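Two proteins, back to back. First:
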Amino acid sequence: TSERAALYRLISRRAAEGCAVLFTEHDMEAVFAHADRIAVLHQGRLIAQGTPDAIRANPDVRAAYLGNSDVDG
């Protein structure tokens, strides 16, 4: 949606200004596109944290959220 696109533009601007930005998102492709560090919760527990590449490759995250298919960068 246009609201979502506007939010992501705002997040990008604030991050470029050096501001820390915390947001919650279930769309993993959006997370990979807009975050430089990610913490992943599953059933209320932290299962992983790191860069988008590390999260994308993490087997616990893949099992919980990404399924068994490959996710391209």
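And the second protein:
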Amino acid sequence: MNRIGHWINNKMVLGTSGRSGVVFNPATGEQQATVDFANVAELDAVVAAAKSALPGWRSTSLSRRPGFCQSLSPSSACSARTRS
């Protein structure tokens, strides 16, 4: 079964909270993966990483942003939004 963690500072980090949720395929109802729920320390790390990335992202032109999104994993929210 696939396990989905957290993307922090350009790395996949598995959660350590001990809590997770089930990800279902809406078309079939079958379980596809589990997703780790974050604890406070993981959430703080995500927020700190996002704050440090914001100046660079803000200065990236709108025409270049989709290229970054498409280069991410197909399972990422950014990539999924770009395709729809």
